[in-house]
Amino acid sequence: MEETKDPAAVGAGMEADRPESAQELPPSLPSPPPPPSPPPPATPETSELLQPEPSEAKARQLLLDEWGPLGESLLLPPRVTWTLLLQRRPLYRNLLHSPNPEGINIYQPAPPTRPTRQPLEALGNFRGWHIRTELLHQNLSWTVKQQCVNLLAEGLWEELLDDEQPDVTIMDWYEDSRLDQCVYELHVWLLAADRRTVIAQHHVAPRSPGRGPAGHWIQVSHVFRQYGPGVRFIHFLHKTKNRMESGGLRRTRVTDSSVSVQLRE
Predict the structure, then answer these.
(1) For the chain, which residues score pLDDT lower than 50?
(2) Which GO terms describe its cellular component (predicted)?
(3) What is d(CA 168, CA 106) in angstroms, rounded to the nearest whole number?
(4) Which end of the chain is less packed: N or C, by CB atoms within 10 Å?
């Protein structure tokens, strides 16, 4: 990453699978909210549909070039083909929709912002996000954005998720807006097929480091490993702090959110 980011801030929240006292989360782990309906999986572009379908051998070679060598234990069930995997590419890609809805570049400080009375949805492309507001005290509020990823619909399969248990990597960047001591929270649940049973979870609410200029980006990331069989959905939810001022709402921005699945080396 470039020097415009604060090296001391990179990697905030990487260690904890459960809230710690310094993170000031409730002593009991929050339950996943009622799950939003997962959006349909991405469909191929028209130009891709016009391309001749590669052979199984060619599709396998293209994916091996992209993913690297696969373990000998990784076998495809009959219903999963290499050409289907090449089309869907369920591994090593961001499974979230609109990960950068406001088009903000993390390689530069967050651009200056003024209080606005426009709804968040009018400020970018938030397709796939379910958005709500939580009112707090002293003119503060949370913007809550969430997505629920259907892993099977994205091209993964039961045997891979249950037997191989590939790593699930979560990453996010939020603005150190200094609107409050804590301006960001991340909550992620790995859920079973009923979308309510929690198999693994991660929660973090970092405090502002108070170093460097306001507006620099802080990275939050976590990797789920050896989480157990049965995972079918990933519920991703983050919260950013707002403050109501005379000219409208001043917000904490967030960008480059990602959920991806990788084979363990």
Answers:
(1) 1-23, 46-47, 49-50
(2) cytoplasm; SCF ubiquitin ligase complex
(3) 22
(4) C
